[in-house]
Amino acid sequence: MSSETARTADILVVGGGLGGVAAALAALRRGRSVLLTEETDWIGGQLTSQGVPPDEHAWIEQFGSTRSYRELRENIRAYYRAWYPLAGWARDARDLNPGQGKVSRLCHEPRVGAAVLEAMVAPWIAAGRLRVLYRHRPVAASVDGDRVTAVVVEGPDGTRLEVRAPYLLDATELGDLLPLTGTEHVTGFESRHDTGEPSAPDQAQPDNLQAFSWVFAVDHRAGEDHTIDRPAGYAAWREYQPPKWPNPLISLRAPDPRTLEPFERAFVPNGDTGPVVADQSKDPGDRELWAFRRIVARSVFRPGFAESDVTVVNWPMIDYVPGSLIGVSDEERDKHLAGARELSMSMLYWLQTEAPRPDGGTGWRGLRLRGDVMGTADGLAKAPYIRESRRIRARRTVVEQDLSLAVRGSAGAVAYPDSVGIGMYRIDLHPSTGGDTYIDVASSPFQIPLGALLPQRVRNLLPAGKNIGTTHITNGCYRLHPVEWNVGEVAGALAAHCLAGGLEPGQVHESGALLGAFQDELAADGVELAWPEIKGY
Q: To the nearest 10°, the Cα dihedral for 415, 421, 423, 428?
């Protein structure tokens, strides 16, 4: 029998991903007490427990993020400089990229990201201002009219804890607080009739969501055999071909996200990939898969330190499209989670036994799972990589025509008078549960409107991640690491700001003077509210 106790805090943040951590830190800097819950035993979400190196825009080393996000990035580099035997050129490199991956200018091990985030919150824990509850998930909520009064979270042993706080922030990966609190929200595709978006379908498709993926890390030991046991469902996965996909999913052939033309990717473990251009405006980076999301590069370290690179397998070939994790029974959810894990292990088994090699042979039997860098025994990430959440019905919904390069052209994205941050990424939608392949649309550097963080009705719950007021389409560019951090940071800052001033979020948004004061506070704290004059891609 589980027991239930109670606890209070100024601000409850449910979900310890990037948005949740940023929200907690922002509130703590403003003198508030915070209780933060996290379903896994790592904070950091997509950066850590989901195993995904940062996906970032081309200008990230210069501008285009909050100051605290840049501190996170520099703290990760400092960790490598302090503890790893870097080659001289790497130690001196201002923009150290430990993995020399092509997807980002900062490709690193998930466990290093987790260690750095733990260090960033450690002083607040020591001061007694922050409590982090690991392995806790929300299971119930109490609501009084338009206010959420409490949330119940459950630990791994079934023990339940009721938390009461004036403000509650939903930083979960799937927007789990929204249905628990009755907060109005949407899922999947909106219709073109409702949003006017060029890429939206004629009819809404609430069950059509982006695929999630269960990523894993591998190195390669030449001359050794690390072949895993053949997954039970391998034969079925080996033949599985999603709708509109040009061939079986498990292969090196897949559509180009931007043109939809299929092409064969290269995959050569520890091969010479040449100079790394980690700039997606010039090279998407996915034509050679070993270097694409490489997180440990031998060349970065002193000779002889690392016998192999380490790379993360987060490719379209492991995008799980047979079903969603939202709006399904627990039994169905568990089936899809198990299916995603089996798909990933089937992809690995195929790489080890059937993948074509340049020498005419097949299979790379030296591929070895590196669960140690993921913090797991089985080699898979601690949690699936989630691309799409439930989204609030917001006071302002960001739509494709607000920022599409094809629509906006040289005018740039819509300038929001209530901007509380900025971001940039192409509208990048992976294959979906409804049978779509890709939607990949050039975008303009955009702003984050405060109205997108405000539910239409509920007064004291704020989204702090991918659950803000975007559409299925614009979620594709608002879902990545720096924007999620910015959204969370603003949500935490707004809750603390309202507590200090005896205000509500809606009042801040509605009053020009109050909004201006809050924007000034954000700017002083290092939140960029507008872009310099640059072009999208």
A: -90
